[in-house]
């Protein structure tokens, strides 16, 4: 167990370093932050002074080393826009993002899992076809299209809900639905196929042949097995709590981490972008780690130290 | 003859309009061991899955299945659930995947104990241990908490048998119980089934494609071909003088244990597909003794001798006489 955790943590650290390095290199190769932040018609001396102030005149590998040195001493850098600490800028946006992604996650789970289970249990029925139609639609329509569609209907046509901004809880409804529907559709599809796979297994027939009532066969024998593949996608959804709303936040002008990321990228505000990517990588990795541990709980075959057959 | 424990009458099953069973008539007496043989796809398993209502919803089932005179086809679910695992237990071909991988074997056994004998808690655990011990699992007290993946294939089949015994059944349907196992393990499992049957006076239906397996464990054997029983006889009679050309072909494909070595014969051709079933005898296209009449009409059961019948027009009284053991 200790060994397992240790290797997992090491792999997580390597992943984070790779993500941050990639972001570092791409951002610096894709345009001069000094020029972008100071504006195209700034005097060259001012741009040069900005470069020197932020260390952008150093060779890229020197910048890279000093960047990592700073990270390890807990300094994630400052925004080149307003000089505030990047981590503070990011952290103050997190509650707004979670206000969308957490309710959306609840919708995904509460809608997607039961829909998938019912579709599998009543395979080829009208219910199954309805769920699958909804799922394919929810799965294939990009979130910005769905978001704009909802705005068109509920904000513009019906005038029931605001189209953007963050003034009240009513402003959160459309973005939460936009996020929730897509995820619920994906989860419904996934749960359905996991359930169908399990329902076709011989041990389900064994349980029925033993005289177990069908409801109990489903609850006791099918669901615990179907949960094993399903936690993977649920874990992925947990991992995207921070960064999963970039597009939707932009569509609904919601001041969360996603919008901060979009602005920071277009401004080449290096420290802020890197700080967000670091945070996203860490949530993803944590979610993956939790999923791996959950596998061990759900599936006895994956538990360490299993007693082997003696004959 | 006393009333049979189980009676199948004119049992038909079809999937999406394709026939899988085409009229099965079969009786099983209390404590009797019946072998059901035939090649894969001939309907051996479907017969018993249909009898217990275990086929998927798309299966169309007609005919009659009675257990002690009680009709099971179309019976309410609650009745069927009491019969399944209670009066009639079933074990399957692939023991490893027939046990639920996420539950301890003890839990899977106690589930049946609670359902059919109302035993729960510590008493159920003790009984599960006793059953595991009975079927020859070493160190049952500890192994009751193990998971199926911690057992070998043969041990898993023993666990399946323990689970089947949990409801104290009057009849056990063993569907190819040894096909997935090594030959040595196979012999042990068959010996276990024989011993349990003797001790409990439990009826046994042994489904197998292997005549050898059936010969050692059963008193009577029914040979199935393309969804019908083509011959039924006491084991010894069938081995001494099979009447149906298909049964003759099956026996011809077995190597003799004694006497001169001979070339093993194979039955040419293949089983007709369900959507292209011949109008007459389904075996006629492959039959070496085919006559014109065979292709015109499906032959009915013709008595060959005592407790011996075959669905073949070639079985005539004259032949019947010839078949009598000297």
Write the layout of secondary structure elements.
The complex is a heterodimer of chains A (311) and B (326).
Chain A: H1 2-29, H2 33-38, H3 44-54, H4 60-72, H5 86-121, H6 126-140, H7 143-157, H8 170-199, H9 202-209, H10 214-239, H11 246-251, H12 257-267, H13 270-298
Helix pairs in contact in A: 1-13, 5-6, 5-8, 5-13, 6-8, 7-8, 8-10, 9-10, 10-13, 12-13
Chain B: E1 6-15, E2 18-28, E3 33-37, H1 44-51, E4 59-67, E5 70-71, H2 77-83, E6 88-91, H3 95-98, H4 105-117, H5 121-134, H6 140-143, H7 153-165, E7 171-175, H8 183-200, E8 203-208, H9 211-217, E9 220-225, E10 228-234, H10 235-240, H11 245-252, E11 302-305, E12 308-310, H12 317-323
Parallel strand pairs in B: 3-8, 3-9, 6-7, 7-8
Antiparallel strand pairs in B: 1-2, 1-4, 4-5, 9-10, 10-12, 11-12
Helix pairs in contact in B: 4-5, 4-7, 5-7, 7-8
Tell me what the structure shows.
The complex is a heterodimer of chains A (311) and B (326). By secondary structure, chain A is mostly helical. Chain A has a domain at 86-302: MetI-like fold (Orthogonal Bundle). Helix content of chain A is 75%, strand content 0%. Chain A has helices at 2-29, 33-38, 44-54, 60-72, 86-121, 126-140, 143-157, 170-199, 202-209, 214-239, 246-251, 257-267, 270-298. The two termini of chain A are 27 Å apart. Mean pLDDT of chain A is 86; it is low at 305-311. In chain B, strands 6-7-8-3-9-10-12-11 form an 8-stranded mixed sheet, with helices on both faces. Chain B has 326 residues and is of the alpha/beta class. Chain B is built from 12 helices and 12 strands. Chain B starts with 5 loop residues before the first strand and ends with a helix. Chain B has helices spanning 44-51, 77-83, 95-98, 105-117, 121-134, 140-143, 153-165, 183-200, 211-217, 235-240, 245-252, 317-323; strands at residues 6-15, 18-28, 33-37, 59-67, 70-71, 88-91, 171-175, 203-208, 220-225, 228-234, 302-305, 308-310. Chains A and B meet through helix 9 and helix 10 of A and helix 2, helix 4 and helix 7 of B.
